[in-house]
Amino acid sequence: MSTTSLQIIGWKEWAVFPEINHERINMKVDTGAQTSCLHVLKVEPYQVGSDEWVKVWFQPEQDSEREVVKSFAVFDRRRVKSSGGHTTQRYVIKTPVQIGMLHFEIELTLTSRTDMRYRMLLGRQALSKRFLVDSSVSYLLGE
């Protein structure tokens, strides 16, 4: 794929999640992260037959107490090293996302980002073959 056919995005953008009440979440583009991650307040695992599921409490807006609760099939569990060097085991879900005009399925690790400025990080796996990042600008796809 030629680089001219990739969407250019800024270092921060908006993501919309159709299966999470069409929530719009402010995200930071993180080319240092392999997998994307999403802020959650709480994750409660449970079984449906032989399948593992998680009930997840989201707080999509940075300065709001509003919570959204949604259940997902567990896609995977991964050991993830944070930028601070700490390794944690995280649940991974797959869900549709819209970034700009692109709609695709994204893998998200679930973790608390309470002390972080952005509710979501968009990692290299989601960027690959879709986006080029212009780190000098933000919200190229609109606010």
TrEMBL record:
Write the record's keywords in alphabetical order, separated by commas. Answer: Hydrolase, Protease
Retropepsin-like aspartic endopeptidase domain location:
8-140
Question: Sorted alphabetically, which PANTHER family does this protein's record hold?
Answer: ATP-DEPENDENT ZINC PROTEASE DOMAIN-CONTAINING PROTEIN-RELATED, ZN_PROTEASE DOMAIN-CONTAINING PROTEIN
Q: Name one Pfam family in it.
A: Zn_protease
Q: Which domain of life is it from?
A: Bacteria
Give GO BP annotations, semicolon-separated: proteolysis
Q: What is this protein called?
A: ATP-dependent zinc protease
Question: What GO terms are given for molecular function?
Answer: peptidase activity
Task: Tell me if Transcription regulation is a UniProt keyword of this record.
Answer: no
What positions belong to coiled-coil segments? none
Q: Does this entry carry the keyword Transcription regulation?
A: no
